[in-house]
Amino acid sequence: MSIDIDTARKVAHLARIKVAEDNLPELASDLSNMLNLMEQLTEVDVKGVEPMTSVSPQRLKRRVDEVTDGNYQDKILKNAPDAREGFFAVPKVVE
């Protein structure tokens, strides 16, 4: 696919990139090269290829998914300017 100068100008405008008129042919060429590369990638047969999260196959470390209270209530409430009955106390703002 080939990008012409008018399309390059429109893409630059949509991307909010200021491109001088002298540089539009180079931008059009670069965009055309990118699209050609994408077309080449669509020709690659990827059937049976598993998606990867990194280049080296490794299993992410996992932990047991257990709901806990964190057991940090005392430490957290030490920083509160006012705490009552195990909660942060704040001034009443709604009558």
UniProtKB/TrEMBL annotation:
EC identifiers of the protein: 6.3.5.-
HAMAP family reported for this sequence: GatC (MF_00122)
UniProt xrefs under Gene3D superfamilies: Glu-tRNAGln amidotransferase C subunit, N-terminal domain
UniProt protein name: Aspartyl/glutamyl-tRNA(Asn/Gln) amidotransferase subunit C
Reactions catalysed: L-glutamyl-tRNA(Gln) + L-glutamine + ATP + H2O = L-glutaminyl-tRNA(Gln) + L-glutamate + ADP + phosphate + H(+); L-aspartyl-tRNA(Asn) + L-glutamine + ATP + H2O = L-asparaginyl-tRNA(Asn) + L-glutamate + ADP + phosphate + 2 H(+)
Chain's role: Allows the formation of correctly charged Asn-tRNA(Asn) or Gln-tRNA(Gln) through the transamidation of misacylated Asp-tRNA(Asn) or Glu-tRNA(Gln) in organisms which lack either or both of asparaginyl-tRNA or glutaminyl-tRNA synthetases. The reaction takes place in the presence of glutamine and ATP through an activated phospho-Asp-tRNA(Asn) or phospho-Glu-tRNA(Gln).
Entry annotated with the keyword ATP-binding: yes
Family statement drawn from the similarity comment of this UniProt entry: Belongs to the GatC family.
Keywords on record: ATP-binding, Ligase, Nucleotide-binding, Protein biosynthesis
UniProt cross-references to NCBIfam families, sorted A to Z: gatC
Record's subunit section: Heterotrimer of A, B and C subunits.
Pfam families attached to this UniProt entry: GatC
